[in-house]
Design brief:
binds flavin-adenine dinucleotide, FAD/NAD(P)-binding domain, eight-stranded mixed β-sheet, alpha+beta, 14 helices, Flavocytochrome C3, Chain A, domain 1, single chain, globular, 29% helix, 2 domains
């Protein structure tokens, strides 16, 4: 075998996988990161929060939480059920504290508590005060020097062309901090525009990989192992179709380099796949470019289908809401787009406080047929092709539920998360101040979450449950520990960071 270069740990992807690269560098071995995109950070950098769900971690304990790992485990097991292996769930909930401690002992990293209620408020030991969630402390771009330009995003920069801010926040701060820490290790090599396309195997063990850069291929030997932290396959419509992932690639939030090349490379050498029809879903506000983008934090309005009927708790956590949209489409009750109906109390712009991709001029939505206004609900219904009687009836019933202070139909406001954006008050707001407005919504996702089945050290398994020596997976390349649920904000990045770390520790522990 001819090798073009050699390293100890080869990491594909630079989202949460940078934690694996950092671990390798800090533990004193050579590490090479290959990143398919022209910037570092993947979807992780697009996250405005960069939140991580690691119960009872040192940051939270210092902030005074009385949470325990045992309570968090009860919650996580109850929500996820037995769709994923018990030991994998245990590892995620228990070991988050270790990785936070590991990172915090390096001054490149700093985190703070950011209360964010768990997504299943009725499950046992749900943390309604949100004390399981931490975010990275923002990082001034100047700290990173020229490297700051190599951090992906934010979303507005990539989608709307706005200049990147001088302060890296959320996921960009997390990625910036990993890059800052990594550059202190001269033996860490990072390559942009370089895609892992093939794994090189001998006698059942992965010895390295073929990567592609500017159309030419190179073979990199990885003496300790290969970590695939290459995100999901959300941007590959053919793969979505083949695995039955609801939603379209154009409506996903992941970067367009998340095409599933690492999934395919591993599958072709016998890796077992699981949860391949799953994604982290959300409702999506449709923008004038025709793409539905992950939207949350609704301070009013209701969602209706073409019959003018509600079909969901509009204040539910976004993945639960997304799954209800999918179910309603499957039942034939809803088709896309569906509509947010709201009144004029805050003007014509929809009451969406966190659109993730900023809204552009209202007239552009109107010109694209996405936002409409009318003096009466009947006229509005006619314009958007919704049953007028259904809409009139729905709004009248909704307004009487608002007056009564409870939503017996969909339970809007029953759980802590539903009230997170209304200061703990009821999120029920009447629709009674004309003119009335409608905004078009679709189904978006934060990325797919099906992938390579692993053990608790993130080692990739065959269908027989045997380890493929030298091969590891994390983040959205790994079959998610959370299975078919999204237990709390910070699970995706948390799992990506943690299992990247554990993967490399395991590589280094091998003889
Ligand atoms: C607006 C927004 C906010 C969010 N907020 C949060 C939050 O606060 N907390 C949370 O936990 N989750 C959040 N999420 C979800 C979360 O960001 C993602 O699910 C998570 O970051 C995925 O991490 P990852 O490491 O698996 O992949 P990514 O971060 O997507 O990184 C994968 C990288 O691999 C590269 N790549 C792909 N294929 C190859 C290949 N073959 N070779 C080399 N490189 C390759 C990609 O270019 C990409 O850079 C949010 C998502 C969005 C869109």
């Amino acid at each position: 075998m001819h090798w073009d270069s050699e390293t100890d740990v080869l990491v594909a992807g630079s989202g949460g996988a940078l934690c694996g690269a950092y671990t390798a560098a800090r533990e004193g071995v050579r590490v090479t990161v290959v990143e398919a995109g022209d910037t570092f950070g993947g979807t992780t950098a697009y996250s405005g929060g960069g939140g991580m769900w690691f119960p009872a971690n040192p940051v939270l304990r210092r902030a005074g939480t009385d949470d325990t790992i045992e309570h968090a485990l009860e919650y996580f097991h109850a929500v996820v059920g037995d769709r994923t292996p018990h030991e994998l769930r245990e590892t995620y909930v228990r070991r988050g504290t270790d990785v936070v401690e590991y990172l915090e002992s390096d001054d490149a990293f700093e985190f703070q508590m950011y209360p964010w209620p768990d997504y299943f408020g009725a499950a046992p030991h749900a943390r309604l005060d949100g004390q399981r969630h931490i975010i990275p402390v923002p990082l001034p771009a100047e700290t990173l020097g020229d490297l700051a330009e190599r951090v992906r995003g934010p979303l507005d920069t990539d989608r709307l062309g706005t200049p990147p801010p001088d302060l890296l926040i959320g996921g960009r701060a997390l990625i910036g901090r990993f890059l800052l820490a990594l550059t202190r290790f001269p033996r860490a090599r990072l390559h942009l525009d370089t895609t892992l396309v093939e794994l090189i195997v001998d006698d059942g063990a992965v010895l390295g990989a073929v990567v592609e850069h500017n159309g030419s291929r190179r073979a990199i030997r990885a003496r300790r192992g290969v970590l695939l932290g290459a995100g999901g396959f959300e941007h590959n419509q053919a793969m979505r179709d083949a695995h039955g992932v609801p939603g379209r690639s154009r409506d996903t939030m992941g970067p367009n380099t998340n095409q599933g090349a690492a999934h395919r490379a591993a599958e072709s050498i016998g890796a077992d796949l699981d949860l391949m029809d799953q994604a982290w879903w959300s409702p999506g506000l449709i923008h004038p470019d025709g793409r539905a983008a992950f939207a949350l934090w609704f301070t009013g309005g209701i969602f209706v289908n073409q019959d003018g009927r509600r079909f969901v708790n509009e204040s539910a956590p976004y993945d639960r809401l997304g799954r209800e949209i999918i179910r309603s489409i499957g039942d034939g009750a809803t088709s896309l787009p569906f509509w947010m109906i709201y009144d004029d109390r805050d003007g014509a712009v929809p009451p969406v406080k966190a659109p993730n991709v900023s809204m552009v001029e209202a007239r552009e939505y109107a010109a694209a047929g996405l936002w409409h206004t009318a003096d009466t609900l009947g006229e509005l219904a006619e314009i958007i092709g919704v049953d007028p009687d259904g809409l009139a009836d729905t709004v009248a019933r909704y307004n009487s539920m608002v007056a009564a202070g409870a939503d017996p139909e969909f339970g809007r406001g029953d759980e802590a998360y539903d009230r997170a954006f209304s200061g703990g008050e009821s999120p029920l707001v009447p629709i009674d101040q004309p003119p009335f407005h409608a905004a078009a919504f679709g189904l978006s996702d934060l990325g797919t979450k099906g992938g390579l089945r692993t053990d608790t050290a993130a080692a990739v398994l065959t269908a027989d449950g045997e380890r493929i020596r030298g091969l590891y997976a994390s983040g959205n390349t790994m079959a998610a520990v959370s299975g078919t649920t999204y237990p709390g904000g910070g699970n995706p990045i948390g799992a990506s960071v943690l299992f990247s770390h554990l993967a490399v520790l395991d590589m280094l522990a091998q003889p």
